[in-house]
Design goal:
Elements: H1 2-18, H2 20-27, H3 33-40, H4 44-54, H5 64-82, H6 87-105, H7 111-121, H8 141-156, H9 159-167, H10 201-208, H11 213-225, H12 233-236, H13 247-289
Helix pairs in contact: 1-2, 3-4, 3-6, 4-5, 5-6, 6-7
């Protein structure tokens, strides 16, 4: 009996050494048994959080790739859990999911070739003495059929979409909006500028608005140069503009100005009267003709 057991083990070891796919599946380096045990104790939300931690997904809300991969593994694990797989079977099934996805993402394997790789990995299931065992002997034939059916409706059915996810560059669309905002001007005066329905600008500029800074500086400089009580003599002297003119000079100047103004008005009046006379003449001629 012991000899038969040793012979079976030696045949399995030789088959695994000859088949690199078997070694890759049997490694189970994707998720360890303690991690599988921790996932089995969680509900669907807990499984998602645990897988985010185990797979080191930090940008689920902003990275499409991480979100798709997380959904891929969470859906697969939850399906296998509902199939009442053991921890060893769960670990092997998650290794199969990772194995097929790695073939697509890193090795660029086509759908047909990936199905062949799956067939080689699942070879020997249900056979007691198989030299081509892929190392998944802990699955039954019915479980293997269920796994294949699940892969058909998950990875294989959407294979082109997964290829696009891994191998097609996507444009990053930046959506923005430009808004023009008018800022309030700084308050340079003590009072705001008048509105259209408020006081007139003349009253505002005369009695409310402060003078420009240049005028204020000029007044300050004048006050410094000429203190109160010491104004220049030119300011204190009032010059009469009529000095040097007699009354007759003023009368003659006013007469000339009046004559010029009246003469121009008379000429303008005569021109307007002549135009009206011509207009009336034309109207009278039209009435006569009719």
């Amino acid at each position: 009996m012991a000899a038969m057991t040793k012979g079976k083990e030696s045949r399995q070891e030789e088959a695994q050494e000859q088949d690199p796919i078997a070694r890759e599946i049997m490694a189970w380096t994707f998720l360890s048994l303690p991690q599988i045990s921790a996932l089995s104790e969680q509900n669907i939300e807990g499984v998602q959080k645990k897988l985010e931690e185990f797979l080191n997904f930090r940008h689920i809300k902003t990275s499409l790739k991480e979100a798709v991969l997380l959904d891929y593994y969470v859906s697969g694990f939850w399906w296998a859990k509902e199939m009442d797989f053991t921890h060893l079977q769960l670990s092997g099934f998650m290794a199969i999911l990772n194995f097929l996805l790695e073939n697509l993402s890193t090795k660029h394997i086509t759908l047909e070739d990936n199905i062949k790789e799956l067939g080689r990995a699942m070879a020997g299931i249900g056979e007691s003495h198989s030299e081509k065992s892929g190392g998944l002997d802990f699955f039954s034939v019915d479980q293997a059929k269920a796994i294949i059916s699940y892969l058909k409706i998950s990875l294989f059915q959407h294979y082109k979409l997964y290829e696009y996810l891994f191998h097609k560059p996507r444009e990053e669309l930046v959506i923005g909006d430009e808004n023009v905002v008018e800022l309030v001007k700084p308050m340079d005066t003590l009072f705001p500028a008048p509105l259209e329905e408020g006081i007139s600008y003349d009253m505002y500029s005369s009695f409310i608005a402060l003078p420009p800074e240049s005028e204020v500086e000029t007044e300050e400089m004048n006050q410094e140069c000429h203190p109160e009580g010491l104004q220049p003599e030119t300011e204190s002297l009032e010059i009469d503009p009529m000095t040097g003119f007699t009354i007759e000079d003023v009368k003659s100047v006013l007469g000339q100005v009046t004559t010029e103004i009246i003469g121009s008005l008379q000429t303008e009046i005569n021109e307007k009267l002549q135009m009206q006379e011509e207009a009336y003449t034309v109207r009278i001629d039209k009435l006569k003709n009719t």
